[in-house]
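Standup notes
- DV: blocked on the single-chain target, sequence here:
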Amino acid sequence: MEEYIRNNEEMLIIIYCFIILWLNLGYLREYKKIKRGLDEIASVDELEINPYSMSLDFIVLVFNFFRRWLIYILAVMMTGNVIVLIISVILFIVSLYDCLFNYTLEKLRKSNLLMILAVADSIYISVFVIYLFTN
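- DV (later): unblocked, structure below
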């Protein structure tokens, strides 16, 4: 199994990138419905979970690691390019800020940062996949 993974490393990364790209495009397609749904929630009291809990913070960080940060790490390691490193660090900082400071219902309603990150990630992943196909 280890040899299979080692021999097909790039193909597995491409499949992973396509899965994340599919999630991002689905989010972008449903963005207006999501915003409308957030506007329909009257207060934090209607939520089933506490948005201020540490366990929710942990879940959000783990989700973002697999949705965004792992691809940034892979792209930097596989390309070795300084420009890719700079773009990855910028995207990491913006997404970390979003995870840590855009968690209240009011901020989620007002912020377009998730959409901007989804667009940026989609472009980033697309360019990375093209790089993998051409090398």
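- Follow-up: The two ends are 24 Å apart (CA to CA).
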